[in-house]
Amino acid sequence: MFFSKILLINLVVFFLVIISNANEISLPIVNPNEIGLSEKRLNYIDKTFNELVENNEIPGAVIAISRYGKVGYLKAFGMQDPDKKIKMSINSIFRIYSMTKPIVSVGAMMLNEKGKIYLDEKLEKYIPEFTNMYISQEVFENNISKEAIIEANRKIKIHDLLRHTSGFTYGIFGDSYAKRRLRNSVLGKRPLPATMTSNDFVKELSKYPLAYNPGESWEYGRSTDVLGRVIEIASKVSLETYLNENIFSTLNMKDTGFYVKRKNFSRIAEPFKEKEPNLIDITKKPLFFKGGHGLVSTVSDYLNFCYMLLNGGRFEDKQVLSKKTVEFMTANHLDNKIRRSTSRIPGNGYGFGLGFAVREHDGVSTWPGSKGDFYWLGYGGTYFWIDPKEELIAISMTQSVTKRDKINRLMRNLVYQSINK
Fold it and tell me: How confident is the model at residue 139 (pLDDT cuts 50, 70, 90)?
C-alpha cells in the first residue's frame, strides 16, 4: 500500500510538471504508459540528468520523448544560464548548430517538389563560380609528399549538396592538403567575418580545391551552407525569409530563427563559460544566414518539425512535404562505391540520406535503434532521432560541446530502455 501511494504521488508530480508546459507544444501530452513508455524506467532519465547537473558536467538540459504523435516525457533539468542562475525551462532557446541542416534540406526538397530545383542539376547553373572546380591530391616524388591540383572528374550536383558528396569539407575531420588550405583561409576562422554574406561565402569557397571528386566520398562539410545559397537563388528571397514563410510559420516554430530577438534574451541557454568553447553570438541578426549551422530553436519547436517528418510530411491540416518525398529523403543515398570520410559520423551501420544519417541495419551499430531510424546532432550539444518503426521521436538539448557525445549515447540507451510495449 505504501509503495502504491508513492507511485501515485510520483504520477501526480509528473503530470503537474508536464501539464504546466502543455501550452508550449502542439502535440497532446499523455500518461507515458498510454504510449508504451514505462514510468518507472523513465525515472532513470531523471536520475541520470539530475546527476549530470549536480556533478557540474552540464548546466542543464531539456528532453522530450514522443510516440504515436503524443508526448509522454517532457522535462527541463538544471540551469539555463549558470552565471545568471536562471533555471532551465521547456521554452529555453538553444543554438542548434548542425540541426539546422535537416531543416534546410527539407526547404530544398520543397523546391524540388515544385520543380524549382532538380537533384541532377549542376551547381554551376545557380552559382557560376563553381563551373571549373579542381581537387587537391597528395602525390609522392622521391618519397616526398607534395600537393597536386587537378581538374575534378565531374561537376558538383544538387544531389551532392544534400548527401554531402560534393567534395566540400570543414577541414577539421582528418588532415589533407585541401583541408589545410581551408583551415588557413578566411573560411577557417571562427566565427566567420561579420560582414560576410551568403554570396561572399560561396564566391570565397569556390576559390579552393575540393577534398575529393564530386560523388566519390562522403565528407561532412559545407555542402548545406552552399545549398542554402541555392535556395536563395531559386526562391528569389533570403534563406531567412524562405524558411520563415515555408517551414517555421507552417509548423508553428515560433522561436526558431537565425537569431534571438531582444524580448527573448532571457530565454537563451548558455554553457559553463569556463569549461566550454565559445559559442556563436545569437543576439544579433547576421548578414549571412548559414544553411549549415545558423539556427536557434526550442525542444517544442523542433518536436513539431520531427513530427511532420514522422507523420509523412503532414503537420495538423497542412501537407509540408509529400509522404514519398519524406521516404526519399530518409533512404540511404550512399552506394558502396562512395567512400566514407574520417569523421565519427554518421557511424557504423548508418548511411546518409538527404539531410539525415539513416540506419541500414537493426544491428551493426553499437547504438540501440531500429532499421530506418534517422538522426542528426548539433555541435553545441543538441540531438534528435526519429524511429518510424517505433513511431518514436526523441530530442535532447543542452549547451555543452565537451559532454555532447556522452549525452547523445546516454539518450539512446535511456530512451530505448524505457519502451515496454
Answer: confident
d(CA 254, CA 250): 10
Q: Torsion-angle region of residue 237: left (phi > 0), alpha (psi -120 to 50) or beta?
A: beta
One DSSP character per residue, 306-369 reads HHHHHTTTEETTEESS-HHHHHHHTS----TTSEE-SSS-S-TTEEE-SSSEEE--SSSSSS--
Residue 25's pLDDT band, with cuts at 50, 70 and 90, is confident
318-268-394 Cα angle (round to 5) = 50
Look at residue 84 and give its three-state secondary structure. coil
For each of the domains in the chain, give its residue range(s) and CATH number, in order of start.
32-88+259-418 (3.40.710.10), 108-233 (3.40.710.10)
Among the listed residues 133, 123, 171, 176, the one whose alpha carbon sits nearest the alpha carbon of residue 153: 133
The rounded distance, in Å, linking the Cα atoms of 71 and 380 is 25
Cα→Cα distances 119→111, 165, 184, 236, Å: 10, 13, 32, 19
Average pLDDT over residues 81-109: 98
Query: Is 13 a residue whose pLDDT tops 70?
Result: no
Q: How confident is the model at residue 342 (pLDDT cuts 50, 70, 90)?
A: low
Q: Let me know: does 396 contact 383? Beta carbons within 8 Å.
A: yes
Name which of 15-19, 119-123, 360-364, 390-394 the model is least confident about. 15-19
3-state secondary structure of 23: helix
pTM: 0.93
Pairing of strands 339-340, 217-218: parallel
Distances (CA, A) of 98 to 94, 184, 324, 379, 384: 12, 22, 25, 6, 11
Place of cell 543542452: 398
Q: How confident is the model at residue 343 (pLDDT cuts 50, 70, 90)?
A: low
